[in-house]
Amino acid sequence: MAYEGRVGSRFGGGGVASHSASNQDRRERLRKLALETIDLDKDPYFFKNHVGSFECRLCLTVHQNDGSYLAHTQGRKHQTNLARRAAREAKEGRNLDPITGLPQGMIGQQLIAPRKNLIKIGRPGYKITKLRDPVTRQLGLLFQLQYPEIGTEIKPRYRFMSAFEQRVEVPADKNFQYLLVAAEPYETVSFKLQAREVDRSPGRFWTHFDADSKEFFLQLFFKTEREERYAGVPGLAPRS
């Protein structure tokens, strides 16, 4: 580092470096030292974000270039956090891999399961039967869906979706809800239902998947208007 021509220095002398110049020289020396000991490709805390900056996942700091990050790794904050992490891992009984710095057993594994990109083979065949209970006069539906090409360890799944969750019909109509049934590799099918409360009492709502015929059954009954209106009212006798 050249010190000639500084204020207060003699010709040919070194002079006194300013505080900013000293910090710049120190960071440069730390960067060169880190380049000799650290491989950024194997650093588990080194991360390049979408704007081109570099982040330290351990200290949650942002750096404009790799030199700044390398200088940070030699600083007190990063070294202190490394010591704390090592002490915590030792206390919890987990050993760190000497190369990656991650707990052993995590190498080659992903924390988030990869999303399956299966090719959809179309929609399943289905049949809908309208039902009415002869005693309670409740209206119901019986869904039968055929999945002849379904996987051996896959079972159809279902869920109810409100009109405000879907993005197909805009604006949303609060008078309707949707029943979704999914089973890979088939496309997810949706049935548009009245926005009425489903009776989930035993025998009213049930599902069954026949693994031999590859057919999925779902039966539901809607609560009557009286049950929906007076649900939860104290003193009202429940329906038997």
Automatic annotation (TrEMBL):
<dbReference type="InterPro" id="IPR052092">
    <property type="entry name" value="SF3A2"/>
</dbReference>
<dbReference type="InterPro" id="IPR003604">
    <property type="entry name" value="Matrin/U1-like-C_Znf_C2H2"/>
</dbReference>
<dbReference type="GO" id="GO:0071004">
    <property type="term" value="C:U2-type prespliceosome"/>
</dbReference>
<keyword id="KW-0747">Spliceosome</keyword>
<dbReference type="InterPro" id="IPR000690">
    <property type="entry name" value="Matrin/U1-C_Znf_C2H2"/>
</dbReference>
<keyword id="KW-0862">Zinc</keyword>
<dbReference type="Pfam" id="PF12874">
    <property type="entry name" value="zf-met"/>
</dbReference>
<dbReference type="GO" id="GO:0005686">
    <property type="term" value="C:U2 snRNP"/>
</dbReference>
<keyword id="KW-0508">mRNA splicing</keyword>
<keyword id="KW-0479">Metal-binding</keyword>
<dbReference type="GO" id="GO:0008270">
    <property type="term" value="F:zinc ion binding"/>
</dbReference>
<keyword id="KW-0539">Nucleus</keyword>
<dbReference type="GO" id="GO:0000245">
    <property type="term" value="P:spliceosomal complex assembly"/>
</dbReference>
<feature type="region of interest" description="Disordered">
    <location>
        <begin position="1"/>
        <end position="26"/>
    </location>
</feature>
<protein>
    <recommendedName>
        <fullName>Matrin-type domain-containing protein</fullName>
    </recommendedName>
</protein>
<dbReference type="InterPro" id="IPR031781">
    <property type="entry name" value="SF3A2_dom"/>
</dbReference>
<dbReference type="GO" id="GO:0071013">
    <property type="term" value="C:catalytic step 2 spliceosome"/>
</dbReference>
<comment type="similarity">
    <text>Belongs to the SF3A2 family.</text>
</comment>
<feature type="domain" description="Matrin-type">
    <location>
        <begin position="54"/>
        <end position="84"/>
    </location>
</feature>
<dbReference type="Pfam" id="PF16835">
    <property type="entry name" value="SF3A2"/>
</dbReference>
<keyword id="KW-0507">mRNA processing</keyword>
<dbReference type="GO" id="GO:0003676">
    <property type="term" value="F:nucleic acid binding"/>
</dbReference>
<dbReference type="InterPro" id="IPR013087">
    <property type="entry name" value="Znf_C2H2_type"/>
</dbReference>
<keyword id="KW-0863">Zinc-finger</keyword>
